[in-house]
Amino acid sequence: MLLITAVLTVVQLLALEAFRPGRAAAGGAPPAALVADAVQAYGSAGTLAVVVDRRQSRITEGSVRAAEARLLRRLAYGSDNGPVADRPFPTASMVKLFMAEDILTRARAGSIALTEGDRDLLREMIRRSDDPAASTLWVRYGGGQMVRDVAERYDLAGTGPPPARIPGQWGQAVTTAHDLARFLARLPVVAHPEDAATLLGWMREATPVAADGFVQQFGLFGTLPAEAAVKQGWMCCVDGQRHLHSVAVTGASVVVLLSEVPRSVGYDAARAALTAAGAAVAAGTTVPRDR
Question: Keyword set for this entry (predicted)?
Answer without folding.
Answer: Hydrolase
